[in-house]
Amino acid sequence: MKHIIICSLILMIAIQVAAQEKKEIFYADPTIHVDGGKYYLTGTGGHRGGPSGFSVLESKDLKNWYPPAGATDGLHMIMTKGDQAFGESGFWAPQILKVDATYYLTYTANEQTVLTQSNSVLGPYRQKDVLPIDDSEKNIDSFIFEDDGKYYLYHVRFNNGNYLWVAEFDLEKGQIKPETLRQCLRQTEEWEATPNYESSPIMEGPTVFKLKDKYYLFYSANHFMNIDYAVGYAVADSPNGPWIKQKGSPIIHRSIVGENGSGHGDFFEGLDGQLYYVYHVHFNEDQVSPRRTRIVPVVKEWDAETGLYKFSVEADQVIVPLATQN
């Protein structure tokens, strides 16, 4: 009898250990929002799939990620198809922005950019009026940037390729100011168009921030299925440009971080004050999807000669975030 009890206990422990197994995370186009001493990770797809929309994981150390308390079957959806939010398919590239006590989630669906909001970082994110930001033409990969009380929407528009555009943005109305629309960049550099995967010009996945009165625009180039998908940057004196591409680009590329298809992510400042970039990579050398999530520390160095910051990554310190499977 005692032997049976011991075996049962061992079996129960083994089951609990298996249930707590940590596995890689498969968010593409990932973003990390820092709030209240925690990191919140979301992106295209997810570590466990689920309904159309966006799920989230949380962490305190960037390495170990967990579903928020109250998650159903280990999955917490912050925005779900049909729940007072625009879109039927193609839920891509979410971004979270906090303004005062309101959280905004901008994303792509039906190849349109969308703005939702919530009073909690964990959602649910919904719309009062269910519609896209600008339905005049297809546009994807939205990023909202605030500067001196003005908001700007960086995004991608299609014209025989994917190109980055910017427009002033009315956050309250959730609309761009069409008269302010302008294209940011054109494909000009060799690294932006390698022959490993033929495609129209592609520049996407924008992130923007300001340092010492200069504006830094980071973007990904090449088709996401290209092993040379990579991240570079440009600098301007205004949120509207003109943008000057920097010689240090790309700062993230398979030759640097050691994995194919490395790109389309977001910058964030860690709880330790370190600057990081979260991004995705191909599943392996022969397969693109599902794309794996990665985080890398970023080095920011002042260049007195140019009067600009230079950026690089600590490629030997790439973090492979792991999710606990409850």
TrEMBL record:
The record marks 141 as: Important for catalytic activity, responsible for pKa modulation of the active site Glu and correct orientation of both the proton donor and substrate. GO terms for molecular function: hydrolase activity, hydrolyzing O-glycosyl compounds. GO terms for biological process: xylan catabolic process. Residues 1-19 form the signal peptide. Keywords: Carbohydrate metabolism, Glycosidase, Hydrolase, Polysaccharide degradation, Signal, Xylan degradation. The active site is at residues 29, 204. It comes from the Bacteria. CDD domains: GH43_HoAraf43-like. Pfam families: Glyco_hydro_43. Belongs to the glycosyl hydrolase 43 family. PANTHER family: ENDO-1,4-BETA-XYLANASE, PUTATIVE (AFU_ORTHOLOGUE AFUA_2G04480)-RELATED. This is Glycoside hydrolase family 43 protein.
